[in-house]
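To whoever picks this up:

The nightly regression suite flagged C1q domain-containing protein as changed. Nothing in the input moved, so I suspect the structure step. Input below, exactly as stored in the fixture:
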Amino acid sequence: MWIFTAPVRGVYHFHVHIYGWYSIVSLVKNGSKMVTAYEYDSSGEGSTSNSVSVLLEAGNVVYVVLWAASQIYTTTDHYNTFSGHLLFTV
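Regenerated output under the current build:
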């Protein structure tokens, strides 16, 4: 599981990108869904992404949840990514 814990209070920007077949993932903050990325291509594999900017308190966690029955492809080519960075402190 991809997990980020905020070190300081501030506004952060997060992005998730997935590659697979019938793939649904959500970016979650402290157990509450913020955004979801959905991909389905009946002809085979595809990709999707989503991003969000959010105010976090120090200690808040943001993580990615793969929905049940979703399939993502994983290889050493790193098709699936989760990234984030601090935009500014508050």
